Amino acid sequence: MKLELHWQILVSMVLGAIIGIAVNSQLGTRTTSLEEGLPPGIVRATILDSNDLIRISWENSAGNQFESVVDPTGRTPGSHITIDDLTNATPEARKLYDLAPSYAYTVGAWCKRIGSLFLRLLQMISVPLIIASLSSGILGLGASRRFGRMFSTTIGYYLVTSVLAILTGLVITNILRPGINSELRLDAARAQVKSASIGETVINQIEALIPTNPFAAMASSAFLSIISFTIIFCIFVLKSGGQVHFRFQQLADDCFSVMMQLTTAIIRLAPIGVLLLMIYVTATQGAVVFRALAWYMLAVFLGLAIHACITLPLIVRIIAKRNPLEFARSMMPALLTAFSSASSNATLPITLNNIEQRAGVSNRISSFVLPLGSTINMDGTALYEAVAVLFIGQLALGGEFGIAEQIVVVLTALLASVGAAGIPHAGLVMMAIVLQAVNLPIEYQGIILAVDRVLDMLRTSVNVWSDCCGATVVERLVSSGETGDTYA
Ligand code: ASP
Question: Domain range holding 475?
Fold first, then answer.
């Protein structure tokens, strides 16, 4: 008996987590003393890599001693939160670490390398798939009046669900008060983070809608630019009408059907890709950091769970009049891939494939709602921004934000989620604009870096789930406003 694809992926995910945790607990600690094979100028080095702490000590030829420590909880004075942080601050310590990391780290790094081949395949098809799918969908619409209706319904859905997600995050954080219950101290936060201001983010998004060179946008996978140019182009094909419309539509439909077949073939590899990516995450992340940030993680998790399991299913039930459980089951391969890859963009080919072939949503709707959603509709990210900033605020102030600040958080978290790209850790980078808006120093973000990957996996699944719910809701709303239309 052959297991269905979503079961295969689920089994690999669980298996990957079990293997990774075993590897982490058995092979996560290694102490090595080296006197040979060291970089020039260094005569002796000791590298201790344990689950909780990395300690690198070395001595140079002048007899001076040095030490660098990576402590994810930040409790060790002068330590770094992550290995990347160490790499930026003391590159020579990083070089020494690479000479003798724990075996769990090495296993994780290799699994990541090989698992990323699966992600590369998905990235390889994403740009041609978006263009083919979007043009086939829009050209199938026939008249641009219907396009306008679909556009406004889609944007309306994005806004409403993102705001609902943020409000859920605010309520949960105000009730659980993770920053006040936690024993963490803010002096742990020292990591370097890039910043972006609100004005800059808005203008960047607007600029992205008008690519100066559409081909350059395609070459650099700038999703928003590609989407906007494809839409503009197709609208003018529709305006040209007649043979022009007919020929372009044929071409778009043909390209789309080939891309779909290619996608289906690549998706068969998902169980292997997911297995390797899960081993990577669990083998390289020690448990200690989760304990220190448990309250914060609980707040994000609960918020995401309420949004994904109550709010969105209710919207699907009431507006789209579909059974949310069955719908979720048909989207399972996409949701599980989103979880393990932490990237809505990489998951997009699977999402498009599942929604049309397993959930029966028409291409003209999904080809518009999903690509656009994967870049600008991020409910999970929006919720996470709100919880994280309130958490940092509670740590910094020792109390709650006032109402005015919380309103600022709602608006800026929405903006940050729209601005975040569908790639791993994008939400973390965008958080700077929310922190700045409520006058918190962006370095405080360092405190949550260590657990970001796990939360990223969760929020990405919610991002993709909201896009899927959006497609079925928009399909219902748009088609109920029309009579006698046949779907392309
Ligand atoms: N990784 C998320 C996504 O691709 C974005 C984020 O970092 O929140 O949807």
Answer: 108-481
Ligand 1 center–CA 57 separation, angstroms:
36
- Rounded to 5 degrees, φ, ψ at 32 are -135, 135
Q: What residues contact 440, with CB distance under 8 A and at least 6 apart? A: 389, 392, 393, 396
**Atom of ligand 1 at shortest range from CA of 344:** 4
CB 313 less than 6 A from any atom of ligand 1: no
373 lines ligand 1 (CB under 6 A): no
Q: Does residue 6 fall inside a structural domain? A: no
Q: What CATH number corresponds to the domain at position 384?
A: 1.10.3860.10
Residues 181 and 327 in one domain: yes
Task: Walk along the chain (488 residues) and give the pLDDT tens digit of each residue.
Answer: 678 788 888 899 889 889 988 998 888 888 988 888 888 888 899 999 887 788 999 998 888 899 999 887 777 778 887 787 888 888 888 988 988 888 988 999 999 999 889 888 988 888 898 898 888 888 887 665 677 888 899 999 999 999 999 999 999 999 999 888 766 655 544 444 445 566 777 787 788 889 999 999 999 888 788 888 998 999 899 889 899 999 999 999 999 889 888 988 888 898 998 899 889 888 887 666 666 688 899 999 999 999 999 999 999 999 999 999 999 999 999 999 999 999 999 999 999 999 999 999 998 899 889 998 988 899 999 999 999 999 988 888 777 888 888 888 898 899 888 878 888 888 887 887 788 888 887 777 777 877 888 899 999 999 999 999 999 999 999 887 654 443 33
Residue of the nearest CA to atom 1 in ligand 1? Answer: 424
Instruction: Say how far apart CA 279 and CA 284 lie, in whole Å.
Output: 8
Q: What sign results for the dihedral spanned by CA atoms 310, 316, 322, 327?
A: negative
Distance in angstroms (rounded) separating the CA atoms of residues 74 and 318: 47
Tell whether ligand 1 has an atom less than 6 A from the beta carbon of residue 344.
Answer: yes
